[in-house]
Design brief:
Strand content: 15-25%
Distance between the termini: 28 Å
Radius of gyration: 23 Å
Number of domains: 3
CATH topology of the largest domain: Alkaline Phosphatase, subunit A
Helix content: 25-40%
CATH superfamily of the largest domain: Alkaline Phosphatase, subunit A
CATH class of the largest domain: Alpha Beta
CATH architecture of the largest domain: 3-Layer(aba) Sandwich
Number of helices: 13
Largest sheet: 8 strands, mixed
Strand order of the largest sheet: 7-6-8-2-9-12-5-13
């Protein structure tokens, strides 16, 4: 790492580190000793604050006009059928299907002026997951690591036995929730099953048929003696990397800490009912259990929100369960004394059009949309930025995806001067021109 100053659904639609040290540093007025001194100082700025992050990813794009950024005075073709309701914060309203969140709105901050410049799912998902525009329809591969992977590499897990980054039930966002050039070890651990299923079990933590834990542990001891010999023979360093992967995987399978964290059935029925007996609710409850056990980032992928047709009929399937899941999570974290140390973030790749289309749906809209942040020490009950009268564009306080990610990294204690080298050896900033949203801190 180099630190330098400066800043499966079907959807609808170059300078090296050496050259920088030789050329870039003198141009910046930095001698080598000064550069190395800054590198050490900036690295020290990354301080593990013991915080975790739970993400609700609304894959496809949530309609802000029907949820957080209501436009009750607009014509019907803009405002839609949902009525605004009061919240625990005087003067703040939300859509009526967010009645549970309305009661805990004093814990929730909204940023209503997020925008970027792409209206296609994949590039937009990449922008929101990484902070950077990258893929196009002609070049769909991920270009930059996701913020979950950046946090994983920067801070790691809060427990040596827990995976640092988990996706429930699996990674989504059109494939952009992974680590790219940071290395596969910083990809999310994918649960691979619906926590609301009757006999929920994590496939990757299950032993093959006929194997008992005691036998696996005996084989581990036997293999370790062979591995020592293989490491002595190996001259490439490959074994060292394989050992790290194998040790982590074996500990997860045979150890009690990880297995117990996934045992959602041990939670009281009353609490499970509060979260909701659906994928949203039980995924949120599982996220809380994983964070409590030491996971650093848990992303809850909530299903597909690409409602070009009959948006309000489709939202009826998404909004009530999301509302129950998020509101109960905030209450649960607060009751357990975990809210200050757990940041909750809800976003998608963009919002939806202010104007309802001819199919009673809303199309893609990246010009202005809303994201939600709560906990982690941020100021709740606050609204940052505003959209125009009908929600078509940003009226005040423009906010970029990089600003949002800079806020998250800052909360987590990651130095905003952090750079990682891409495959060409070029140092890439994790925040670029992004700056934390100071109104929330």
């Amino acid at each position: 790492m180099l630190t330098v100053p400066g800043g499966s659904y079907r959807n609808c639609d170059g300078i090296s580190r050496r050259n920088f040290l030789q050329v870039g540093a003198p141009l910046l007025g930095l001698g080598l000793s000064s550069l190395l001194e800054y590198e050490a100082t900036a690295a020290d700025e990354t301080r593990d604050r013991g915080k975790s992050l739970i993400v609700f990813w609304t894959h496809g794009g949530m309609s802000q006009q029907d949820t957080y950024d209501m436009k009750p005075d607009s014509p019907a073709e803009y405002r839609g059928p949902y009525r605004p309701i009061k919240t625990s914060v005087p003067g703040t309203v939300v859509g009526e299907r967010f009645a549970r969140q309305a009661r805990v709105m004093d814990k929730i901050a909204q940023v209503r002026s997020v925008h970027h410049e792409n209206g296609i799912h994949a590039p937009s998902a990449h922008w929101m997951q990484t902070g950077y525009f990258g893929p196009t329809l002609a070049r769909i591969a991920a270009q930059y690591p996701s913020f979950g992977s950046v946090i994983n590499k920067s801070l790691g897990s809060r427990s040596p036995h827990m995976p640092a980054y988990v996706a429930v039930p699996q990674a989504e966002a059109f494939g952009y929730q992974k680590s790219v050039y940071l290395g596969a070890s910083y990809d999310p651990f994918e649960v691979g099953a619906d926590p609301n299923s009757k006999n929920f079990k994590v496939p990757n933590l299950a032993l093959p048929g006929g194997l008992a834990l005691a036998n696996v542990r005996k084989r581990r001891d036997l293999l370790s003696s062979f591995d020592l010999l293989r490491r002595d023979i190996d001259r490439t360093g490959v074994m060292e990397g394989l050992d790290a992967f194998k040790a982590k995987a074996l500990e997860m399978v045979t150890g009690q800490e990880v297995r117990q964290a996934f045992e959602i059935g041990s939670e009281p029925d009353a609490l499970r009912d509060r979260y909701g007996r659906h994928q949203y609710g039980q995924s949120a409850l599982l996220a809380r259990r994983l964070v409590e056990a030491g996971a650093r980032v848990v992303t809850v992928n909530t299903g597909y929100w690409d409602h070009h047709n009959e948006v309000h009929k489709n939202l009826e399937q998404h909004l009530p369960p999301l509302d129950a899941a998020m509101a109960t999570l905030l209450e649960d974290l607060d009751e357990r004394g975990m809210l200050e140390s757990t940041l909750v973030y809800c976003a998608g790749e963009f919002g939806r059009t202010p104007l309802i289309n001819g199919h009673a749906g809303r199309d893609h809209w990246s010009n202005c949309f809303t994201v939600m942040l709560a906990g982690g020490g941020l100021v709740g009950g606050r609204i940052v930025g505003a959209s125009e009268r009908h929600g078509g564009g940003v009226q005040e306080r423009p906010t970029t995806p990089l600003d949002v990610l800079a806020t998250i990294y800052d909360v987590m204690g990651i130095s905003l001067g952090t750079h990682f080298e891409d495959p060409s050896g070029r140092p890439v900033s994790i925040v670029g021109s992004g700056r934390p949203i100071h109104e929330l801190t």
